[in-house]
Amino acid sequence: MACITAKYRSQCTVCGQTITPGTRIEYAKGQPIRHATCAPVEVSADAIHLRVGQGYAAPSFGGWTQGQVLPNPGRKHGSSASRSATQRHALQVAWEQAHPKPVPDVPRPVLDPTIADFNERIMALEPIRAAWRAAEALITEAYVASRDAAVEAQLGETHDNDGPEYLYILSASRRYYREEGMSFGVGDESGYVYNAICRPATDAESAPVRAERYAAARRHQAAADLSALFAEIVQAGEYPEGNHRPEGEHVTLDPQDLYGGGRWFVVGPQWIWAVINNGADGDNWSANNVQTGGAGAIGRRVPTTNELALRIAALAKTASK
Asked: Which of 201, 226, 251 is the last residue of a domain?
């Protein structure tokens, strides 16, 4: 390959970044283009290849980048159901071949030749058909359950074969298809297909990703626990009549918006309120008992305890990290 100056905008097939005009590149006709500073990647026989079309990826997905560490998309962490659909199907087919499906122990639907009128034959056959369908449904349900249980057990035993838990991107590329994108895996009429070549990530490389995933899981769980606590107060709390303005610290669950939505706690010295904004068009504003500056909200309250106040504060802090 020759080292030249790029005249046109393109993409490096090693790092996945844009090549701008004026950049020095390694070029050979018919060969992938790369930055002059990007060393070509040696692809080992056991390299892991990723490929996804823009139409199948998340809307914000823009492809992979060289040096990126990510969870292996080919496995579901901690689950025995982590094999690909192709592998799962192959195991199901093998099990079905070794275990033929039972035949219903009821008369098989057959037209009665002694009945001359064809419509009468069909009517006479219907009860037999119904019994056959019912027996077939029961057998199929039990058969599929047995098959899936056997496949899940086998997947669990071979979980380590699903590949490494985290991957390190050695090189990344993308290709744009202007038309017939569905035929090339874009998942849409036009768009990109993203590719990456990976190797297993080391523990040191995956440490930041694992830490972030753990923190995200903690935030998600804290938010769920806070929402469940809110629902408990709504369910068990008292609904005081009147027009109240609760005093205390506001802990937002869902931000209050201009359309009358939102949920929040008010943690006061005497009461802890769970407040649901009720100011949207079509809401029953006459049910509101909390002032908001708008149409109002519905609030329920329970007596304040130190334990409950500290729990709300701790969950809100964790959920917002």
From this structure: 201
